[in-house]
Amino acid sequence: MATTPLAPTAPERVTARRVLWKIPADQPGYARPALWAMTAAAAVLYAWGINHSQYHAFYADAVRSMTQSWKSFFYGSFDPRDSITLDKLPGFLWPQAISARIFGFHPWALTLPQVIEGVLSLLVLHRVVRRWAGTGAALIACAAFLLTPVAVGLFRTAVEDPMFTLCLLLAAEATQRAAESGRLRPLLMAAVWVGVGFQAKMLEAWAVLPALALVYLVSAPVPLRRRLTHLAGAAAVTLVVSASWTVAVTLIPAKDRPYVDGTTNNSALSMVVGYNFLNRFSSLGISAASTGSVSATQGGGAHHAPGAGAGAGAGAPKGAPSAPGDAYGAYGQRSAGQSGARSAGQGSAGRGQAAAGSYGQQPAGHGQAGQGQAGHGSTGQAPDGHGLGGRDQGGQGGYAQDGHAAGGHAAGAQGQGGRGPGGPGGWGQDGWGKMFGPALAAQTGWLYPLGAIALICGLLWRRGRPRTDRTRAGFILWGTWLAMYFLAFSAGSVGGHTYYMGVIAVPLAALSGGGLTLMWRAYRARGRRSWALPGAVAATAAWSAYLAGRFPGFLPWLAPTVALLGAAAAVSLVIARTGTGGRRLALTGLAASLAAVLIAPSAWAVQVFNPRYGSSGMGAVGPTGTGGHRGGGKQNRMMPWGGQGGGRPGKPGGGGFGRGDGRLTAEQRKLLDYTTAHRGSAEYLFATTGWSQASPYILATGADVLPLGGFSGRAPFPTEAAFRKLVRTGKLTYVLTGGERDGFGAMAAMFGGGGGGATPVTRITDWVRSSCAKVPAAAFGGDAHSAETLYRCR
Questions:
Q1: Any domain includes 315
Q2: Does residue 564 lie in a domain region?
Q3: Gly residues: which segments have biased composition (predicted)?
Q4: CA pair distance 408, 373, nearest whole angstrom
Q5: Coil, helix or strand at residue 111
Q6: Quick one: 542 and 674 in the same domain?
Q7: I need a surface site. Which of 97, 287, 312, 688 has the fewest CB within 10 A?
């Protein structure tokens, strides 16, 4: 039978507005605008004050070098002459170096990639959670992630974790697609993303592999044999991509590449496995002694958490005990003229009322802290010479105002510090309880109860479902992800690296979004499961009120407000559950529940707009960041890592690491001009006895300065024989000496080495002082009383 075709209809006019605002059929009308609003909010939070960004010294020096040659770009060289690499894989700096090549070398150009990575992370999280648990869950998850303080601080900080976090989210999204379809291609893509994440964060990226593998193994709709085969192929791809840089560097002859920092054997594998992994688990009895790691073989021990007994070797008298909480206090115990341009730095132990320190407010805790009166800090002078204001009470292990500011590093400041609450070390707690300590939990752990209850309910309530059940697979993914990193950080040393917690914030946010929607459906269906929602809200509000209460000097209204909101939400839900309140009361209870669980972290997150509590170079926002202080003086918001504190940058000192703007002091400029004028045919402008001495010259001008000893000051680069050969062959003429490992002292001992005894750098320094001619300060217009001395070796 003939059919009459329908007359063609005129094509619908599609305007830009209709395209942009078109809502997919499976989403409510508010979904897209809500996502755009949160995306815009993320961009504002992450980019706020980007024009006042500060350089992350050490990393920024490498970026400067990486912009000058593609060889430096590939290796992640610290200095422009490609003498020595960073003590990390360079992948996380590649976006920063590309940005600097495009926009020029500016602090904001180095911050911009982290902002972009943060916004993309939010969008990828939304996509993954929406496919797993629906639009409502995705929006709640994005809100929770956006308002987690450490997430705000993380994506403003020029460290490894922004790129690392984005890569793991992309890996989760690809695994989700693979698990739904049983196809190999997206699973291999997930493996690639984990490998790229490895370039940013090394072996920490592999901690997510059990979560990804378990999801695919449990839920992919293909036979078991094929699932295992696919996983084997993905594992091979992960290994190849992860090891690509390490293998390439290993295969290149040592004479044709920079020395690999953090090692005694110039091995990239030693740097990855020993220095940056095994050393962090020394508390478990794991030894890296056979890996060629600097800290393992040179007496430095593990990567100590700050305040955990690593400070005696760098600032305190030789042989002084390393009591918990005194590490950064010992850092402040410097005698006059020992390093940089410091003056009186006599330290004394004290009991610190850890209320409001450089790293913020902490409840009362006792610790040992060095107190010192500082003149000019060689590692950064506080604005206007006021340091952190009068006598500040530091909360975080003596580093707060005493070890750094008052111990000879910020002019005119005195301070006291104490251990962090509830345990040794000032950055919170050490050992298995550190994740629950206020210093870390206040940055990322507000939703611990909600996430845990959501995970339990999600797994229990989906029992008996088909193996391929998507909802259960999501809970497996996020629950395993959370468990792996929670255990890894509990067992390993994280020190004050708050930004590590960003990878914890991701699964907590996802579990909160998926769990709340699951519990809301159960609540509406009545039955015994309906009690889970009010219980979870009450537990989370109580925990949040407890955390907020640990910081009584910061937003004192917050704890009672959270408690009242939580109580109101739970009561409303209970009343509505009994049938006497109706749907309107239930919705009111739901709204109050969201407010109760999100108001505390959001109150911290918005402190990024507050110069007093703005984010730090360690990723912290709020009173556990760098801004909190007490006293009448002006505030030094500088961190040694040069993070965005929202304040004025510290003035550069003699070879310090606290520069925010990358400019040289007048004295440094004179020294640079003198050595440049008298350089002749030398390959290096001059050598320094510590990376932080070389840092300002590299950062400001890209000068060819040779840093000795690497980050820890203990890497055997160059050897004494190699150094003498550089002098003998005319490749090096001048050497700038100061204090051993100037400007970093105990900090390097805690994170990369330390311990007593002679090192290649000290032996070279002794040879220089005995065999080379001292250049009078008057020859280049320098300060005759400076602790730094320039020598001419030919």
A1: no
A2: yes
A3: 298-316, 367-378, 386-430, 620-634, 642-659
A4: 6
A5: helix
A6: no
A7: 287
